[in-house]
Each structure stands twice: as structure tokens, then as C-alpha cells.
Design brief:
The complex is a heterodimer of chains A (about 220) and B (about 450).
Chain A lengths: L15 H5 L9 H6 L20 H8 L8 E7 L2 H12 L10 H7 L6 E4 L4 H7 L3 H8 L8 E3 L9 H5 L5 E3 L7 E9 L3 H12 L4 E9 L1
Parallel strand pairs in A: 1-6, 2-5, 5-6
Antiparallel strand pairs in A: 3-4
Chain B lengths: L2 H6 L3 E3 L7 H9 L3 E5 L18 E5 L6 E5 L13 E5 L20 H15 L4 E5 L5 H14 L4 E5 L2 H14 L5 E4 L12 E5 L12 E4 L11 H10 L6 E5 L4 H6 L2 E5 L12 E4 L3 H6 L5 H13 L3 E4 L3 H14 L3 E4 L6 H10 L4 E4 L13 E5 L8 H8 L13 E5 L4 H18 L1
Helix pairs in contact in B: 3-4, 12-13
The chains are: A alpha/beta (about 220), B alpha/beta (about 450).
GO molecular function (chain B): 3'-5' DNA helicase activity; ATP binding; DNA binding
Keywords (chain B): ATP-binding, DNA-binding, Helicase, Hydrolase, Nucleotide-binding
InterPro entries (chain B): DEAD/DEAH_box_helicase_dom, Helicase_ATP-bd, Helicase_C-like, P-loop_NTPase
Chain lengths: ~220, ~450
């Protein structure tokens, strides 16, 4: 098996842990992993962006009708060059295997999580075209149970500019499943936060009391 | 010939991306001219690149067809294909297209080149594979022009494949000049789309995935690694793109033993086209070079060599075994002369820096093995730092030595292997060069 990012031979590290317990096989080599930048410094308590306690984007939402729709949240990685390459190959070249790369990080982020994980969905047509849902696959690779509560309406954000994104009307509707009290919304890439806000609003109106968010990447 | 036929003949293409209206494609399918195949066969083989290792052919729950599909990671950069992707092939027999083609090459061949050229033509007529074993700077491309022109006259479809885009881009203008009225396609990673039927296809080896039983004659340049290359899919690509009876002409300066044994027809040229012998590498000990460089010191023998070249105003290349070591040595080299630059494979300014070295704006380049092939700079001097490192195998060292003395005006120059211990690969490279020079004299 070669590294799924650089195609160089993987040298499995031997460890006592590996001998005593089952460890899933590594899919990416350490040099490739080192290229990704984890978000480590404290920052926005809603989206995880490094810096201020509430980042300018989240500040905007707080002031424009979305006050406390999302309780808190975090993002795991910066959107650097390595991450852009990964994202392109995963989402647009449709290399589903790459979901495995962040399985460990997502598992770690959601360990001891009691709220239900709710992935952001794609619309039906997009799903057929892409042949997989990128958020579902990330969760499945990490072996995290999840439940779909939402359906995507016609409008998509891709190809829109910042203001158009933030002004989008309705993006999601309920799919009819019962909405639990506590949940954590999961998405691959957090850009302006429009997607998350719309999804959270619909769920809040349907009775969710605590909504947190988790994004793999914060752009 | 219809436009769709011209495009599809010999190609294997994703149906969705055929550049013709859907109805026209469907009509061709209905008439039986076009065959539709599944992207990944039932036994898990990619129809485009013939990959079948489960490390690369990956199963997944497909939302498009609702079944468990497989997709191929090997050729994913050309657009992903999975079990439910439809590929199309033109199956109707192609009419013979023999037509006289002009020949725009008016150069002269040396006696050795002419003999090789004739031997290749002979092999093509007998439908035999052939190996052109010729040292760096022997004038290999010119040798091919006559055999290719003959094949064109007979209506053959010809492909020249090389592993690297640089080589293909360099060949393209020379071919357009030599065959002014032939339809020549140049295909590489991001090449612009070319319509119609290419009589001569210049392509990177990867692009051959997109052809199937297309060519009556194939040339494989830089075939050193054949048949056991690091990437066996490239060898499969060549076999798949050729018609079953098509002769394959391998071209290499450092062919493997297996290739030499496997192929009956050989022609060898161990002299440069202007008749000079190849520069023979010299060994210089450079103990603990890695530690010295890491500690911020260029070892004195190397420093002395560089200063000598600076004094003589000769451009030089310093080959390093790893990008990491280049990074450590770079600031130290700049202290010796600020006109020394560094390049590596992912350097977007690679071409500019090589150009600057040629023009004299730069005095020298520290490089990884990426510049081992295909560059010609007059009066160039070469040093390998850490020639004992495993990345420098026989073929790489011969190629590196082959950068030196490439012009008739100045056929000599330094090739120094700085080493921390002499390896078999170094000796093999040196022995081979001495052997070429001896054979070349005879």
C-alpha cells in the first residue's frame, strides 16, 4: 500500500500499541500529514477561526438575525495549499478513499460526543452527479454514527461571491425525521458560515435546543 | 472521414465527454461503429489504464447507480472512471490513409546515425521491435526522421511517447518542421484539445491510457526503466496503445539488461554526433559531507571545485541527493557566490533558472536529479555531491555525466563524483562510459 497523497511506499511504524491492539492501517505518510496545518491557537468560539473570541464573520451573523442560533463549535484545519489539494482531489476528482486521511482527527474531535451528528446534505441531483456525499463519507470513514435531518433545496452556494452567499434565502428544509434536543452539525468546509447558519436555523425552529458545529476545514 | 470517426479512432474515451452531440454518439453506437464498455470490468480491471490492484481499484457505495461500484485511482487525474462510467471505442475498421507526405528535414546524418536509421527502417518493415542504444548527445531524434517519413508514406499511424512533458514539448517543433503537412498531435497533462485524427501523436506515456490499439508504430523515448519500471502501468499503456502487430522502437542511453536481452534488433551509437568521446567521471572523496553541510560548512574539496569554476567563468550544476540537503547547502553556496540558485522538481521557475544559467546571469545551480536529462548548456561542468547515495543509480549517473561536453566546440568538461565511499553503481556508470568510449573508437 502506498500513501494515498504522494504515492510513495508507506513504512508502517511498529509500536507496542499496534502489537497489542488493532490499529487501522495508515493511508497517508507522515511527510504528507505534516503539510496539513491544524488549528491550534484559541479563537472564535463559534467557528474556531484563530484570533478574536468572536470572528468578524460570526459577529455579522450575531448582528443579523442569527444571535445564538449556534451555541459553539470548532474547525480542525486551516485551508492551506496541502488542504486545497486534498479538497480538490476528494470532492472534485471524487477520490473517495481520501476520506480516510482525516478519520482519526474527526474521531478524536467527536469522541465522548453525546449529541447526534448531523451531516450537511447535498441535493439529490448533485449527489447522483458526484456519486457520493463528501460529508457522509468523512463520518463513515471515521466510524461515527450520524443521522440526516435535512434536505437541500435548489439553491447552492458554489460559484457565488461573499455577499450573495450571505444573502441566500432558504437552503434547507426538514426531511421529516424527529429533531433531537442536542445535535452537532458537520460540514467539510466552513467559508462564510452561511450553510451552517441556515441549517441551524431550520433545526432550531423545529425544536433543537443546543446546536453546535464541527467543520473539518476553516477557510 | 467523419469528424467523430477521426476523433474516436484508436481512442478510448468517457462517453459523457466525447466532444460531439449526444445524438451523434448514440447514432454511431446504434450503427455498431462505436462499442460501449464499462469503466471498470466485472473482475475489477480499469478499462483505460488496465490497473487491477485492489490498492488502486477501490470499491464504494455509488449514489449514481445505487450499487457497489469500483473506481480507479491510478488514472483519476484524467477524470475519474468507475464501474458505472461508460467508455466508448470506435470499432469500425479505418480505411487506409496512405498519402504522400512532405519531408522538411534537410540535415545530414553521420555514418553511425545513418546505419542506425537504416536498421530501424528495416525492423519496421519486418514488424520487429528494435532498441536504439545511443549515448547522450548522439543525435537520436534525427535518426528517427527517415524511418518515420517512410512509415507515414505507407499510411501508418505513429506515436512517439516519452515519460516527461519537457521532452514532448521539445520534440513538437522539430516534428512540425520535419513533417510540415502531416497531422501532428502533441498530448501531455494540460495540453490544449486537438481535433481530428493525428497521424503522428507525440505524447507523454500517461496519455497513452487514452488510446487502444491505435498505432501501427510506436517509439518509446527514454526507455531506460523498461521493462521493470517503477510504474508498471506505463508499460501496459504502451502495449495497449499499440496494434497487436505494431513494432515498438525503444530508445535509451542506459537500457536495462533485460531490455537489451529481450529485443533482438539493436543499433548502438557510442559516440557523440561530432565524434568526441564522453567525459569520464572522476572520483573525489568527501567524507561526512552531510554532517558538514548540516553544521554550516561546505566541505573544502567541494568549495575549491566551485571556486575554480567561478574563476574560469564556467557554468556548473551541483547534483544533490535530496531536496532537504539542497535547502541546507543553499545559504552556504550563496556565501561563496550570490549568483548560485537552487531548483527542484516542484519549482515553478525551473525553466527560467536553467535559461539564466545558460545566459550567464547565474553562475551555477544546485539541483535534485530532476535536471539529469534533457538539458544542454555549452561549457557546462558537473559535480555530484554524495554520488554514493541510492538515488544516484547507474542510469542516473550516466545521464548526469552526459550533460557535459555536448557541443562540438567544447567537447570536454568536468564530471566529478564527490562521494563518501565508492558504490557499485558509481563503478558501473564509470565502466559503462569507458566501454562506450572504447567501442566508439573502433
Amino acid at each position: 500500500m502506498n500513501c494515498c497523497l504522494c504515492d510513495q511506499t508507506l513504512r508502517p511504524k511498529s509500536s507496542w500499541r499496534g502489537i497489542l491492539l488493532y490499529e487501522p492501517p495508515e493511508v497517508a505518510c507522515q511527510p504528507c500529514r505534516n503539510e496539513f496545518a491544524k488549528i491550534t491557537r484559541p479563537g472564535c468560539k463559534i467557528c474556531g477561526k484563530e484570533g478574536e473570541m468572536i470572528c468578524p464573520d460570526c459577529h455579522y451573523w450575531q448582528a443579523h438575525g442569527y444571535r445564538d442560533v449556534i451555541q459553539s463549535g470548532k474547525s480542525l484545519f486551516h485551508y492551506n495549499d496541502a488542504m486545497k489539494d486534498w479538497f480538490h482531489q476528494y470532492k472534485f476528482l471524487k477520490d473517495i478513499l481520501l476520506a480516510q486521511v482525516f478519520a482519526g482527527d474527526l474521531k478524536e474531535a467527536l469522541k465522548n460526543e453525546r449529541a447526534v451528528a448531523v451531516p450537511i446534505p447535498l441535493n439529490e441531483e448533485k449527489l447522483r452527479e458526484r456519486s457520493f456525499s463528501q460529508v457522509d463519507q468523512l463520518l463513515e470513514a471515521a466510524n461515527i454514527p450520524y443521522r440526516h435531518l435535512l434536505e437541500k433545496c435548489g439553491e447552492t452556494l458554489g460559484g457565488k461571491n461573499r455577499q450573495e452567499r450571505m444573502d441566500a434565502q432558504q437552503l434547507f428544509r426538514l426531511n421529516g425525521e424527529t429533531v433531537p434536543k442536542q445535535l452537532v452539525l458537520v460540514d467539510d468546509l466552513y467559508t462564510t458560515g452561511t450553510t451552517m447558519r441556515h441549517a441551524a436555523k431550520v433545526l432550531q425552529e423545529a425544536g433543537a435546543e443546543s446546536i453546535r458545529i464541527l467543520a473539518l476545514i476553516r477557510a | 472521414m467523419q469528424a467523430i470517426e477521426a476523433f474516436l479512432t484508436g481512442r478510448i474515451w468517457i462517453k459523457q465527454f466525447v466532444p460531439f452531440p449526444e445524438e451523434q454518439v448514440q447514432a454511431a453506437i446504434d450503427k455498431g461503429h462505436v462499442k460501449v464498455v464499462s469503466g471498470i470490468s466485472a473482475d475489477g480491471e480499469c478499462a483505460r489504464c488496465l490497473e487491477k490492484s485492489p490498492d488502486y481499484v477501490i470499491p464504494f457505495q455509488c449514489a449514481r447507480c445505487g450499487e457497489v461500484c469500483h473506481y480507479c485511482r491510478r488514472c483519476i487525474k484524467m477524470g475519474r472512471i468507475s464501474s458505472c462510467t461508460e467508455l466508448v471505442l470506435w470499432t469500425a475498421p479505418a480505411p487506409s490513409k496512405a498519402a504522400p507526405r512532405a519531408f522538411g528535414w534537410a540535415g545530414n546524418l553521420t555514418l553511425l546515425q545513418e546505419n542506425a536509421s537504416k536498421a530501424i527502417s528495416g525492423s519496421i518493415r519486418e514488424e520487429q521491435d528494435h532498441l536504439l542504444y545511443a549515448v547522450c548527445g548522439a543525435g537520436k531524434t534525427e535518426i528517427l526522421f527517415l524511418p518515420i517519413h517512410e512509415a507515414l508514406q505507407r499510411g501508418m499511424r505513429i506515436c512517439v511517447a516519452a515519460p516527461r512533458t519537457d521532452v514532448i514539448l521539445e520534440l513538437s517543433p522539430r516534428f512540425h518542421q520535419a513533417f510540415p503537412d502531416a497531422a501532428i498531435h502533441t498530448l501531455y497533462g494540460d495540453s490544449p484539445e486537438q481535433s481530428g485524427y493525428g497521424e503522428i501523436v507525440l505524447a507523454t506515456t500517461h496519455q497513452l491510457y487514452r488510446f487502444q490499439e491505435a498505432f501501427d508504430l510506436l517509439f518509446v523515448d527514454e526507455a531506460d526503466a523498461f521493462p521493470y519500471s517503477l510504474d508498471p502501468s506505463l508499460e501496459r499503456a504502451v502495449k495497449k496503445a499499440a496494434k497487436p502487430s505494431a513494432p515498438v522502437i525503444y530508445i535509451s542511453a542506459t537500457p536495462s539488461k533485460t531490455l537489451r536481452k529481450q529485443i533482438a534488433g539493436h543499433s548502438t551509437i557510442f559516440r557523440r554526433y561530432y565524434g568526441a568521446p564522453l567525459p569520464v567521471p572522476a572520483y573525489r572523496a568527501l567524507w561526512n559531507y552531510e554532517r558538514q553541510i548540516r553544521k554550516g560548512k561546505i566541505p573544502p574539496p567541494l568549495k575549491g571545485w566551485i571556486e575554480d569554476k567561478l574563476r574560469k567563468k564556467q557554468p556548473f550544476l551541483l547534483f544533490f541527493p535530496s531536496i532537504q540537503l539542497i535547502g541546507q547547502a543553499y545559504p552556504l553556496l550563496r556565501q561563496i557566490d550570490p549568483r548560485i540558485e537552487s531548483v527542484h522538481a516542484n519549482d515553478p521557475q525551473r525553466k527560467e533558472k536553467v535559461m539564466q544559467l545558460r545566459e550567464g546571469t547565474l553562475s551555477g545551480l544546485a539541483t535534485s536529479t530532476i535536471l539529469e536529462r534533457g538539458i544542454t548548456i555549452p561549457h557546462l561542468q558537473v559535480a555530484v555531491i554524495g554520488a554514493d547515495h541510492p538515488v544516484f543509480d547507474r542510469a542516473a549517473l550516466i545521464q548526469i555525466a552526459g550533460r557535459v561536453g555536448r557541443s562540438a566546440k567544447d567537447p570536454t568538461g568536468d564530471v566529478v563524483f564527490f562521494h563518501g565511499g565508492i558504490t557499485r553503481q558509481m563503478d558501473a556508470a564509470r565502466q559503462d562510459i569507458l566501454f562506450y568510449n572504447k567501442e566508439g573508437e573502433a
